[in-house]
Amino acid sequence: MKANAAVDSLRVNARYVEQVLAGFIAEETRRAGLKRVVVGLSGGLDSALAACLARRALGRDGVVAILMPYRMSHPSSLKDARHLARRLGIRAELFDITRMVDAYFESDPKAGRVRRGNKMARERMSILYDRSVAHEALVLGTSNKTELLLGYGTVHGDMASSINPLGDLYMTQVRQVAAHMKVPEPIRRKTPSADLWPAQTDEGELGFTYHQVDQLLYLLVDQRYTRSAVIEAGWPRALVGRVMRRVVRSQYKRRLPLIAKLSERTIGVDFRYPRDWGT
Among residues 86, 95, 103, 70, which one has the least CA distance to residue 194? Predict the structure, then answer.
């Protein structure tokens, strides 16, 4: 498959995807014996789509949006999150994480942006899990397949969740489903960003566009092309190498912690039943 020829393969039947993912959220929430989810609504595309799918699956009373700005968050992020919550008719709770994060770094003011960004992500997830107990809810994940494969996220931060409806959708496909579900255009037009510091963008940090990397990941992961095969098909050697290194080096982020094997039935090795085992 030649470079750029994977575009057609990344097209999805958005109506079908909506039905499957809404059904997934409803079924997995019910399996856990619960009736609602909490979702960190950032004002970005992924969390907006996750919230829309949850509203479709569980109704307005089944979704609680948690808004968690930091002092350097772009003003439009909070504005867009509030607008979407009102539009969906779901409850929204505001928790400003500025004091929590800044208090931690008072003893280490020279900490760099990556450490501060990781702390913000984990602070937000800590709040989400606490609010999930308060609301008797599951934490709804918002990481898409592109981010998960590239390891572009924080362990126990934005990559954590109880269930994740977006984890098998590339960013290119997230955009298609979001358009189908009429996620507000200002959110869909935004440049993808974790909003961790001023002018931060996902693609600026990664060094390539989602449009480009989604096609390459589709070939490498879904179609099982080898490195030499994609290079032969016209993909730049440097880009292929950079992407493959990210996927390999971030494998630890996509699995449960490794447990040293001592017994005959080790969790995650020999004992790998589905979560509803025994029911």
Answer: 70
Residue type, 255: R
Q: Other CB atoms closer than 10 Å to residue 260's CB: what's the count?
A: 6
- Domains, the chain, ordered by start: 8-254 (3.40.50.620)
Q: What integer is the mean pLDDT of 69-79?
A: 94
Q: Is the dihedral of CA 204, 116, 149, 157 positive or negative?
A: negative
Contact 116, 196 (CB under 8 A): yes
Across residues 205-224, what is the average pLDDT?
93
Q: What percent of the chain has pLDDT over 70?
A: 96
Return the pLDDT at 24: 96
Do 105 and 113 touch, CB atoms closer than 8 A? Answer: no
Residues 6+ apart with CB under 8 A from 82: 67, 92
End-to-end CA gap in the chain: 45
Q: Which of 118, 165, 175 is nearest to 143 (CA)?
A: 165
More confident position, 258 or 178: 178
User: pTM (2 decimals)?
Assistant: 0.92
Q: Which residue has the tokens 């020279």?
A: 110
